[in-house]
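Page 37, continued from 36.
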């Protein structure tokens, strides 16, 4: 491989005015097609075979169409109305304003008018919930699902909910005008003094990156590269490749929306991966090119050697990332599959631009690339073994006391990992949106009026087809009593039977919110009780609704982590055996990753779940799909640093250095570029904490933390310590395995032989002439 990349690097450098126009045409073509054919992305997080789907099936069988509201792409809307302070909604002026809102909704074009809307106060009157003893048991049972908060002992009749069916087909079909119309229809009621907020998918906009994070990340990367290269012009090259690589990858993803449904989170993940990897890979190759300029006969030769050596490492570093991201498809969750594929596309383009566009750009900038040189910045050449750099000082310190540095790195990572022991998972719901959004205001107003559990009502669907007709009412009553008996259940509504009484449904309202662990435990306990009722009555039931779906997704994703990690790590382990021609080096690389991953989870739990250090205003469970995505992404990046740093150590060992000296020299050569690459990734990922979306914030932080722990504690302390302690055994490989594993020549030994043959040929030609 190194020979092919060497020859391509020379060709692209010399034929830059062929390569560059080809890339310009490709970039414009992909961008134009993506913009012209792009269709709206999906916010669907649907997962097959969830227990909640069984409840939907029972609902559809006995109450046709009832399950539509519980699908991820369903168009839902709930108006939450609050009375002015010190008043009640039943007061004449407030009731008149509420009547006006209902009339306007009944005339709104986007509302499904199959059944006229009834205002919440009138509905509560029809249920007999505005009179009588409000603490009597029969009143509580009858009015527990009233749309007016008649049961609130502190603020009765002050908050109402109005569920509105919309005629829009699915979430992706909602337009900005639809959202505006649904919100503005309540302006007259607001002007009359009512608080009217709107929740549900009709009020939610698809979350897209704002672009600020990418710009801040690019700016920081530019500064780091100026420091790394000691020149301004060279710092532009990785920025150009990052823009081209990310632009091409994003355009291809947009193009994919024309033929398939693509989750909206795909572009966010591709942005993080595309920017970081494109810059890192370009940084690695340009750094090697800078050194080769001082030892090769020509800039074209320097570009060829840089691509043949550093480019080979980039290929295999990129492959580990792609393996980890494509491996997300084994989880069997559609939106995770597409997010992984989107990230893999971005990683593939990062490798592609580094190998094809990069040498042409080096040729285009020519002798100006490392000018103007900046004083006091990057004066030492880490490729020069006669210079003592900070990397060499750190390596020598590790070489002197490897046991101490090994123990310290493990202890530090272990302490940071401790909070991960109480990791809780949850999906970003209405309570995770910015406090300024109408959806979040509706959530808080509903919580104030009806309790937190009203935002995540459990829908219980009962199949009575196998229950004796004379026992059906008793069976449903027994089930209600069982659910009411749980301490975490606030109340349970009266049952509604299907016309043939072969099915029933009712609602259970927890005391806690949809993402609270107590609520999820309640769902699990309620489901576990089914066997008791099945054996006694022959009755089957299921539980659905937001809370139940959240709990199901958490359980599924948590159960996929171990098999996913095993498959991805196994595939990467085999790849790294070929890269390093060693057993212990890939093994220690994987074990080191487990430590950095544990520390990453610990830090993320401490800040986003436990609320330490006051970084987030509202601590909440970790997003349920984050752990498995984090494993895939950080594993790929971890192997990047392993390849970047340890291939240089192997190169020194192969060329005859003792194991300890090979580690020190390889560390000396690779420390600056790995440090720069890690710093760029940390800031690129960390800059996503500027996004208002909590998913972006927590994912950005977790990725930044993962890179920090893995690059600076594992790859630059723990692994070098182990290499010194293992000595020559670090590079041992059984003879039988050595014969099987292909020699891919990441060190560029065959490349040097080609150079020597070509130089000898030129000398013979010169002698003859």
């Amino acid at each position: 491989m190194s020979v092919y990349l060497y020859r391509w690097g020379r060709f692209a450098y010399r034929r830059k005015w062929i390569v560059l126009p080809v890339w310009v045409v490709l970039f414009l073509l992909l961008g134009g097609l993506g913009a012209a054919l792009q269709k709206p992305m999906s916010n669907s997080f649907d997962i097959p075979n969830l227990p909640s789907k069984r409840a939907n099936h029972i609902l559809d069988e006995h109450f046709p169409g009832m399950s539509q509201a519980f699908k991820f792409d369903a168009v839902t809307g709930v108006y939450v109305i609050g009375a002015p302070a010190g008043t009640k909604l039943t007061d004449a002026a407030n009731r008149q304003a509420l009547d006006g809102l209902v009339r306007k909704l009944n005339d709104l074009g986007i509302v499904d008018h199959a059944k006229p809307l009834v205002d919440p106060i009138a509905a509560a009157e029809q249920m007999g919930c505005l009179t009588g003893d409000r603490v009597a048991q029969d009143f509580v049972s009858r009015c527990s699902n009233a749309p007016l908060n008649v049961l609130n002992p502190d603020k009765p009749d002050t908050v109402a909910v109005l569920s509105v069916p919309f005629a829009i087909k699915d979430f992706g079909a909602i337009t900005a005008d639809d959202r505006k119309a649904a919100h503005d229809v309540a302006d007259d009621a607001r002007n009359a003094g009512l608080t009217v907020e709107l929740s549900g998918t009709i009020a939610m906009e698809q979350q897209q990156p704002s672009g600020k994070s990418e710009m801040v990340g690019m700016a920081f990367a530019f500064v780091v590269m100026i420091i790394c290269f000691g020149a301004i012009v060279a710092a532009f090259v990785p920025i150009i490749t990052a823009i081209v690589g990310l632009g091409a990858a994003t355009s291809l993803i947009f193009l994919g929306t024309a033929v398939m449904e693509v989750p909206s989170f795909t572009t966010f993940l591709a942005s993080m991966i595309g920017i970081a990897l494109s810059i890192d890979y370009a940084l690695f190759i340009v750094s090697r090119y800078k050194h080769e300029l001082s030892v090769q006969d020509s800039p074209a030769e320097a570009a060829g050697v840089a691509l043949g050596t550093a480019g080979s490492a980039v290929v295999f570093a990129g492959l580990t990332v792609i393996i980890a991201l494509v491996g997300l498809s084994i989880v069997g969750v559609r939106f995770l599959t597409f997010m992984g594929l989107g990230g893999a596309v971005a990683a593939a383009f990062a490798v592609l631009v580094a190998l094809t566009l990069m040498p042409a750009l080096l040729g285009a900038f020519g002798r100006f690339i490392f000018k103007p040189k900046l004083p006091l910045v990057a004066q030492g050449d880490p490729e020069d073994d006669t210079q003592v750099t900070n990397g060499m000082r750190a390596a020598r310190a590790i070489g002197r006391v490897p046991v101490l540095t090994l123990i310290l790195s493990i202890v530090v990572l272990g302490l940071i990992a401790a909070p991960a022991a109480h990791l809780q998972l949850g999906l970003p719901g209405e309570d995770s949106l910015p406090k300024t959004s109408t959806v979040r205001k509706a959530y808080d107003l509903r919580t104030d009026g009806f309790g937190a559990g009203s935002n995540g009502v459990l829908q219980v669907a009962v199949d009575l087809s196998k229950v004796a007709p004379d026992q059906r009412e008793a069976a449903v009553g027994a089930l209600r009593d069982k659910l009411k008996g749980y301490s975490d259940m606030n109340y349970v509504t009266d049952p509604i039977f299907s016309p043939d009484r072969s099915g029933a449904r009712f609602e259970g309202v927890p005391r806690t919110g949809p993402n609270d662990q107590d609520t999820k435990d309640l769902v699990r306990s309620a489901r576990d009780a089914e066997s008791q009722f099945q054996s006694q009555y022959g009755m089957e039931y299921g539980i659905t609704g937001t809370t139940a779906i959240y709990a199901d997704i958490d359980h599924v994703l948590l159960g996929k982590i171990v098999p996913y990690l095993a498959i991805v790590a196994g595939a990467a382990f085999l790849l790294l055996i070929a890269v390093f021609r060693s057993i212990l080096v890939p093994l220690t690389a994987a074990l080191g990753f487990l430590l950095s991953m544990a520390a990453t989870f610990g830090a993320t739990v401490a800040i986003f779940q436990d609320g330490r250090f006051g970084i987030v205003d509202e601590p909440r469970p970790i997003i349920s799909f984050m752990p498995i995505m984090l494993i895939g992404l950080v594993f790929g990046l971890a192997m990047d640093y392993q390849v970047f740093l340890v291939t240089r150590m192997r190169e020194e060992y192969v060329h005859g250095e003792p194991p300890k000296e090979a580690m020190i020299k390889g560390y000396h050569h690779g420390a600056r570029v790995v440090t720069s690459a890690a710093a760029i990734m940390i800031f690129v990922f960390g800059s996503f904490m500027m996004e208002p979306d909590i998913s972006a914030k927590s994912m950005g932080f977790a990725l930044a933390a993962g890179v920090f722990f893995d690059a600076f504690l594992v790859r630059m302390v723990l692994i070098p310590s182990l290499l010194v302690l293992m000595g020559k055994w670090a590079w041992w490989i059984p003879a039988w395995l050595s014969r099987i594993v292909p020699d891919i020549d990441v060190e560029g030994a065959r490349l040097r032989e080609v150079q020597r043959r070509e130089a000898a040929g030129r000398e013979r030609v010169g002698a003859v002439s």
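The two ends are 34 Å apart (CA to CA). Flag for discussion at group meeting. The chain has two domains: 2-40+208-254+264-368+388-427+551-752, 77-199.
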